[in-house]
């Protein structure tokens, strides 16, 4: 009897549950009955995660040392956390990422502003705060408050989140206007300010700090509104398991302190390419270079370079710090990657002797691989630029120089072409794509300055040594003893 009652109750329960489910689907069509782990299971089954992103210095790009960028570092770690491979689609502007995630993607990671009401999208917990910043062309005076923006040609990126702060500002200043672009990136906005196509732009503070050295005529203004949270996007309607996994990963990263360390690595310092002033350089010249001068001279004898040039390159790379580490894990006095160290037979990148020897031989290998048509100082400067940005991106810049009717064998012309690798109009026509092309230009310029200073100090020492080695003969004439040759 009990069994019959149970079966009857089960049958009625099944009927009512089914009826309730149908009613809920009719009344509330947005409720999903998808198993919570369906999306995550699909990713594990196929063994890779597809991420829609964009190429920018704050997100993802291909550097000489391989893929890099703050969000790339997070994506890579998240893929490892899930135990799957990482498949990137970096063909997007910021406004095309969310549609791609809705239609076919697993994750959107492209400096996205957290927008909880976006249809078809769930956002993760916040990753970092992004502060909108007004930047403007140097020479426009009196840009101190929002009222000063009225009448200016202002640009910003659509779907980046900055337009929301501008709209809030517009409520108090109705005459305020701006243009939004879905085709440009931050570097291109700043380039338009530099060439006077725009008066100002609203970007994020960390983006300005990473790009400011490339655009010396773009001035920092003031903050626009409150910070905006950056988050990742996942498609809704496919279960919450993947979203929960992403949130656990980000929570663990925050709790371990690793997220703060990554933020500090990528955004805490914006002066890697800053030319170090004479006072600081001379201090390092006196306190650090003597420890490594013999190693630079030894490497110079092996490779045929001037030891002072190798020392200048080493200073630009690490300030002669054998324990230096970059955000991407490049380390040592000459900042060698693991693949480069392996290529030149270096086992311990933190050993100054190995690092200097390996860096000098790597520079020589680049120098020798350049086309024979590049000669003299042009060849040397292009080799140094390749040490920074990679040989592939240098060849892309030479191609751009040729397309512009310039001489691809001239450093002066290639130097003009390299920054264009930051603009989609140009890097889309190249083999290796986006690069922070302004960086090698500043890099080479700095090394040349450091070389000139070391050369000047060395020459002064020679002259001083000569005076110290003089004697006066019976006729009152100065006699110079032979000067020991430099090793």
From TrEMBL:
Domain Solute-binding protein family 3/N-terminal: 48-270
Membrane topology term: Peripheral membrane protein
PANTHER family: MEMBRANE-BOUND LYTIC MUREIN TRANSGLYCOSYLASE F (PTHR35936:SF32)
Name of the protein this chain belongs to: Membrane-bound lytic murein transglycosylase F
Described purpose of this protein according to its UniProt entry: Murein-degrading enzyme that degrades murein glycan strands and insoluble, high-molecular weight murein sacculi, with the concomitant formation of a 1,6-anhydromuramoyl product. Lytic transglycosylases (LTs) play an integral role in the metabolism of the peptidoglycan (PG) sacculus. Their lytic action creates space within the PG sacculus to allow for its expansion as well as for the insertion of various structures such as secretion systems and flagella.
Span of the signal peptide: none
Free-text comment on this protein's domains from its UniProt entry: The N-terminal domain does not have lytic activity and probably modulates enzymatic activity. The C-terminal domain is the catalytic active domain.
Cellular compartment(s): Cell outer membrane
GO molecular function, one term: peptidoglycan lytic transglycosylase activity
Organism (species): Vreelandella salicampi
NCBIfam families documented for this protein: PRK10859.1
Region feature (LT domain): 271-487
GO cellular component: cell outer membrane
PROSITE patterns reported for this sequence: TRANSGLYCOSYLASE (PS00922)
Active site: 317
Family annotation (HAMAP family): MltF
Lineage, opening ranks: Bacteria, Pseudomonadati, Pseudomonadota, Gammaproteobacteria, Oceanospirillales
Residue ranges crossing the lipid bilayer per the database entry: 12-33
Top EC group: lyase
């Amino acid at each position: 009897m009990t069994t019959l009652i149970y079966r009857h109750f089960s049958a009625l329960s099944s009927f009512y549950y089914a009826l309730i489910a149908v009613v809920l689907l009719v009344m509330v069509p947005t409720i999903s009955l998808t198993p919570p782990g369906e999306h995550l299971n699909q990713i594990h089954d196929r063994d890779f995660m597809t991420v829609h992103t964009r190429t920018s210095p704050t997100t993802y790009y291909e550097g000489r040392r391989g893929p890099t960028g703050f969000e790339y570092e997070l994506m890579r770690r998240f893929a490892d956390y899930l135990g799957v491979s990482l498949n990137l689609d970096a063909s997007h502007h910021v406004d095309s990422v969310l549609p791609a995630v809705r239609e076919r993607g697993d994750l959107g990671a492209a400096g996205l502003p957290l927008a909880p009401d976006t249809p078809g999208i769930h956002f993760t917990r916040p990753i970092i705060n992004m502060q909108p910043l007004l930047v403007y062309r140097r020479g426009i005076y009196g840009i101190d408050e929002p009222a000063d923006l009225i009448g200016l040609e202002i640009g910003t990126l659509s779907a980046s989140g900055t337009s929301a702060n501008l709209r809030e500002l517009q409520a108090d200043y109705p005459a305020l206007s701006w243009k939004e672009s879905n085709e440009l990136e931050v570097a291109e906005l700043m380039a338009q300010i530099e060439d006077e196509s725009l008066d100002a732009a609203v970007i994020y503070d960390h983006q300005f700090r990473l790009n400011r050295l490339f655009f010396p005529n773009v001035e920092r203004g003031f903050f626009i509104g409150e910070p905006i949270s950056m988050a990742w996007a996942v498609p809704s309607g496919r279960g919450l398991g993947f979203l929960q996994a992403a949130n656990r990963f980000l929570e663990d990263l925050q709790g371990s302190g690793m997220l703060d360390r990554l933020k500090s690595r990528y955004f805490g310092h914006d002066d890697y390419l800053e030319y170090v002033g004479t006072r600081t350089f001379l201090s390092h010249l006196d306190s650090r270079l003597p420890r490594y001068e013999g190693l630079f001279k030894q490497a110079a004898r092996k490779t045929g370079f001037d030891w002072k040039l190798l020392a200048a390159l080493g200073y630009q790379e690490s300030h002669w710090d054998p324990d230096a580490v970059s955000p991407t894990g490049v380390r040592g006095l000459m900042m060698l990657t693991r693949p480069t160290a392996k290529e030149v037979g270096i086992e311990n990148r933190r050993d100054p002797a190995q690092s200097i020897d390996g860096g000098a031989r790597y520079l020589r290998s680049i120098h020798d691989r350049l086309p024979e048509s590049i000669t003299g100082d042009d060849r040397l400067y292009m080799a140094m630029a390749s040490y920074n940005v990679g040989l592939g991106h240098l060849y892309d810049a030479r191609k751009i120089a040729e397309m512009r009717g310039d001489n691809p064998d001239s450093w002066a012309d290639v130097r003009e072409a390299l920054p264009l690798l930051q603009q989609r109009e140009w890097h889309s026509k190249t083999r290796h794509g986006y690069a922070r092309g302004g960086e090698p230009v500043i890099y080479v310029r700095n090394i040349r300055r450091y070389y000139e200073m070391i050369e000047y100090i060395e020459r002064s020492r020679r002259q001083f040594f000569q005076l110290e080695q003089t004697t006066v003969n019976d006729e009152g004439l100065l006699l110079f003893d032979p000067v020991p040759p430099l090793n």
